Amino acid sequence: MNERPFPSPLLAPTCDDRLIWEIWLSRYHLPALTVADQIGLFSFLAQSPATIEEVAVGLSLGPRGAEVLLGLLSALGLLVQRQGHFHLSDEARTYLLAESPYYHGDILQILNYPVTAATLREWLENDRAIACGGGEEDVLIRAWESGEMSPEMAAKVTSATHAHSFPAAMGVARNGDFSNVHRLLDVAGGSGCFCIALATRHPNMHFAVMELPTVCKLVEQYAATYGLQGRIETIAANMFTDPWPSGYDGVFFADIFHDWNRAQCLHLAKRSFEILPPGGRVFIHEVLLNDTKDGPLVAAAFSMTMLQLKGKQYTARELAELLQVVGFIGVTVRPTYAYYSLVSASKPAE
Ligand SMILES: C[S@@+](CC[C@H](N)C(=O)[O-])C[C@H]1O[C@@H](n2cnc3c(N)ncnc32)[C@H](O)[C@@H]1O
After folding, report:
1. From the centroid of its chain, how far is CA 338?
2. How close is the Cα of 259 to the center of ligand 1, in Å?
3. Which option is the CATH number for 117-346: 3.40.50.720, 3.40.50.300, 3.40.50.150, 3.40.50.2020?
């Protein structure tokens, strides 16, 4: 009970409290989506739109539970109710069906651990990776820094990053400007999804993914799935400690700078500059934080995830400064897909 005396006279609030309600109840959004994915709700409704009762019986939910879940998922925009039947929205059909190439299920399941206020407080106070949810993130950053990742962890993390990145990769292929780039090195390229997307768009470009050895094996499998074996080379290396290959006129990073601190990012920018020929180009694909550091909401919240690693979402100005410090010129920023933008710059021509 608040012991402070109430102001007198008592004035009505100057604004209503919807914002607080929305934030308070947002705690159910992600678990509801994750459960729906786990129980196969989206594939159930893909076979045939269904009523609350049909969903309850078909997926072994209580009738009240089915009503509440379908209501929340509809309000979130994942389902559409028509004459008592629940259908998939375009977003659910595109991103939540396992047979879709853009299925996000693997990233939902890997992030399925609680972030309590106590956990978050620890991250904020320590400003570094702290074990949580079974220590997964702590283990991850140590594997990445040492360059040693088990095949099991590589498979789990790579399927999650693939799920997260493949739609954005298609956006990069459609909207990125890769003119005059013939040989592209994708540093820490995960599944190779950006090279896969770009290879379908640029038949004469050559691609290489530089990754940890256990991930390189997976890149070959992903490339083969899309009939691109031979078009996408793999280079097994620790990007922090091993030599980088030469012979590339473009160096590409997607969701890499946000994992690391400024000194580590500077190292990556410097190595790129060193291996590129004059006129060569560097590309950084990220969800950018506003230069004023006050949004957008997704970039600000994505930074919370990066607190578990070493980085944060950078602003366009911060990335431009990093590139200019090592010698790049002509920085441009171009929106590519959803919340993502491509920051690019050139090594000066001699
Ligand atoms: C956030 S994921 C991004 C993957 C991919 N670029 C994408 O956007 O889908 C980070 C990637 O960096 C790779 N990585 C981490 N540390 C590395 C290192 N020391 N050397 C090479 N690759 C590394 C990981 O294996 C992982 O695939």
Report:
1. 11
2. 9
3. 3.40.50.150
